[in-house]
Specification:
13 strands; glycosyltransferase; 4 helices; globular; LD_TPept_cat_dom; acyltransferase activity; 9-stranded mixed β-sheet; alpha+beta; two-stranded antiparallel sheet; 2 domains; 224 residues
Length: 224
């Protein structure tokens, strides 16, 4: 299924999704496997935004640990730091009271994950997307440029990670594949539900420190 067709189906699904019963999440990591009914039941409405409204995902279809929530946090990072735990599939925004806002994320598949320290170099609203040279080499048929919108793989918002003044080419961004949250399927970037990346975008400033942790083993997140 093309990205454009996916977006069209998602929009068609919005007025129908409120009538869908809550059912357990099914394994669906490839949008080509998604039927119109599969897509429809993920969406329950929209969040007003400019220039596009954000399709709102039914978080009842996500595992509980992937739903945005405030948790106790025992790390040493200062408030305002973004901590990405690749192994647990979580992103933490550290607060100043021993807690963090925890978001479920999708991460890079094996061989694409990155770790290290960075900062939010800039922020984008409904950003444009272009594949890296590595992506093009692996998939030559990828479009070379996609304008911001519902069919864009970066979703509604993006945080661009920089090392000093150098763009690392890694991003924290939205996704139009909500079933991929909690899985390792991306080309290395950190993907979030559009409604979650909107929340994160509103909370952090350019310059915020980012720490990406990865051991290569699936472990319990460092929250209590």
């Amino acid at each position: 299924m093309s990205i454009s067709r996916f977006a069209a189906l998602a929009l068609l699904a919005l007025p129908l999704a409120a009538c869908q019963p809550n059912v357990p999440q099914e394994s669906m990591t490839d949008p080509q496997d998604a039927t119109e009914a599969d897509i429809a039941r993920w969406y329950i409405g929209t969040i007003p935004d400019d220039p596009f409204d954000i399709p709102q995902v039914d978080t009842n279809l996500l595992p509980e640990e992937m739903v945005r929530q405030t948790v106790k946090y025992n790390g040493s990072e200062q408030a305002g730091t973004i901590v990405v735990d690749i192994d647990s599939r979580h992103l933490y925004l550290v607060q100043n009271n021993g807690t963090a806002v925890r978001y479920g994320i999708g991460v890079g598949k094996q061989g694409f994950s990155w770790k290290g320290a960075a900062r939010v170099g800039r922020k984008g609203v409904w950003p444009n997307w272009s594949p890296t040279s590595t992506m093009v080499r692996i998939k030559p048929d990828l479009p070379r440029h996609v304008k911001g919108g519902l069919d864009n793989p970066l979703g509604a918002r993006a945080l661009y990670l920089y090392n000093g003044n150098v763009d690392t080419l890694f991003r924290i961004h939205g996704t139009n594949e909500p079933w991929s949250i909690g899985q390792a399927v991306s080309s290395g970037c950190i993907r979030m539900l559009n409604q979650d990346v909107l929340d994160l975008y509103q909370r952090v400033e350019v310059g915020a420190p980012v720490i990406v942790k990865r051991t290569g083993k699936r472990v319990v997140a460092n929250a209590e």
